[in-house]
Fold:
Amino acid sequence: MSEQEKKLLSLGGNKKLELKTKPVSTEGAVPAGSVKQSFSHGRTNTVMVEKKRGAAKKTGEVSIAATDQRGSMVKGPEPGTSVNLGGRGRATSAVIRNLTSEERDARARALRGAVLDHDRRDTEHVLPDAQISIGGEAATAPLTRDTLRQRELEELRRIQEQEKTEGDRRRVEDAARGRDLQSTRKGEASGRGASNMTAARLGDSPARPAGAPGRRGAAEEEEEGGRGRKPGRNTPAAPRRAPGDQRRGGGRITVTQALTDDEGGGRRRSVASIRRRIERERREAMQGQQEQQKIVRDVVIPEAITVQELANRMAERGADVIKALMKMGVMATITQTIDADTAELVTAELGHRVKRVAEADIETGFAAAADTPEMLKARPPVVTVMGHVDHGKTSLLDALRHTSVVAGEAGGITQHIGAYQVVLPEASHGFDRITFIDTPGHAAFTEMRSRGAQITDIVILVVAADDGIKPQTIEAINHAKAAHVPIVVAINKIDLPAAKPDRVRQELLQHDIQVEEMGGDVLSVEISAKTGRGLDKLREAILLQAEILDLKANPDRPAEGAVVEAKLEKGRGAVATVLVRRGTLKVGDIFVTGSESGKVRALIDDHGKNVVAAGPAMPVEVIGFNGVPVAGDELTVVPDEGKAREIAEFRLRRKKTLAAAASQRGTLEQMLENIKAGAVKEFAVLIKGDVHGSIEAIKTALVKLGDDSTEVRVRVLDAAVGAVTESDVTLAKASQALIIGFNVRANSQAREMAKRDGVEIRYYSIIYNVIDDVKQALSGLLAPTLREKFLGNAQILQVFNITKVGKVAGCKVTEGVVKRGAKVRLLRDNVVIHEGTLKTLKRVKDEVKEVREGLECGMAFENYDNIETGDTIECFEMEEIARQL
Structure:
């Protein structure tokens, strides 16, 4: 049998029933290219088989065309349309649809069974071998045309019955589901808003594809209409759904459902069940939160804390903390700061454990442990030279060091504190060197002298033999006694003819200083710094006193020291002179000094040479500060940079807090008292200097100027080390302040800005001049003193009443002079009855400025005319006298 004689019956990929035939060359058979169909009651029909070229070649599909008995060609039905099968005018309406996977499987099983049955039967009309291809599977069996057509019709009827049964089942389910949904909505009308929103967000029913029908496909409705209703009758409209009513059998499907379940017949959860599940989960979650046990926490409470921060540390709501505070009688907002005691009570009230800490605890353990006696080694003595100004302190140090420091001092006086180390020609009393600290003698440098006395071992009190005891000498004695350090008296200028050392020793007795010559225990040496007389004896006395003190320190530990002086240098930054007390300071050490920290980048000794390390009692210049430290602060080496920065920041915050508290305005009572007494006038200044010690002395001296006055005072806006900059000029302009530059100058930008803005900058190199100028400026702010100056008297001889002028007194000047515009008093029987000014003063008919004694004149008072003959007019004027502080 050739391939052309074969007939093909197959189901293609588009689920269409296809039949391919070839002409049969037997007698009595149907014409080639046609198929004969048999129906009941003897009806037959011939169907022409037509090949579709083009699309049919690609898909392998063939459409069926039917030719009626009259020979007319009729095309096969399209998918989704009705076809009438049957005889004698009775029509059975069927819908040819795209087949589902179940239908394809059922049809494949039916065809396989037909093939097996055909093998067991003998047929009269044997067709050529037919190849049946279903879903890619092929089977070959001889079939008759009538048998094949009958089985196709039976398969079509079975499919229609299944669809009808499925449609009935769906309608029953939809009706039951609608009743359940209506009852659920009535029972859960209250409190279901949130669940509806959640269910809508979760997407209870999948989104309906574009173009999909509302509930069921159009083919199903048409099929049901064809089965259950008469043709041409309209389908009744579906009942309207309530808003939010989403049914399980709706037309919204997902892609996954469309691929796995074409009919959508799978059972899914309803909207009501999803809402009930969400509500149940919410109640369970709320019940779990209520039953959750409270967690007790350890709350760290500092000295001051905000309500919000306290709530965060306790993991409590801010409203609960505020409620607890209100129960205690404290009305506080969420951002308000409360003290540690109140925070502790609130924490205990809420059931947490309290752990009190102070911000100062950061410095706990900061100081190193004490040294054992085995670690201590001998160290050089530290000697501070103190005394009155111009008594020869710096000259004495120059003679000991063989230098000339005094030649570089402005005004011939020392205005800086210095630290030096003198190496002895040979060791004596166990020491080979001595460290000297030079202090200024001016009254303004009290802080420097006090600082020098605190860091020293021995004080050398220099007294001029020709001048005796002076105020700064007494102050130096008090500083030494307060520091509990021994004193060695050096009577200087012994080479002068007016020198009287015995008088100096006697004057010292008045201040409880008894020298050995007067039966005491204080060493005294007569010296001359100019000629070098007695310097060896002074050196010997210092070493002897140091031997008695047994000075020792541990060099093998982190360094600790004191800042003697600090300054800001161009190119090197902040530089401080540090005297190491114990330990060894090395290059690379990390340290903290007051509110500043840093790392040692270089160490320079008093001779200007770089050194690698500095041991106990050695003064060095330290380079590497982050900012200019305050003279007198302690320098301590710390293990890491983070610790140093943390300590420095804490000290800076504490410093700012204290400064803010000191600058706060007084209470309301104090303010009212100031208003009653008159506002205090302030003279604002801004101080810039070369070293911190000088700035400190100037600031202290200027503030003291206004201590004795209740009318004026000096307000120091800022006092810092360094040159005058643009920011200084801006600050001075805003406060109308005077800029004082002590041994510093303003840069070019600052000078231009000051000239443009009218800010005055004054430069000084001697502290006397600074104090005198500021004192004079304060005196100018004082209100002048008013004093009355008597001018003369005039006797009223006659009173004239002139129209439109009033009363005019005809007078004769009896004493002095009477001036126009001067103050006058009207005396009647030597009693003052009026005080005012003259309105007019005439001589004959002319206005004159003054009338002298013995002359007559006419006078009239301003706004006063109660004058009588015999009254006396006293003329005087007020003059202003400038006051001085």
Observations:
- The longest strand covers residues 785-802.
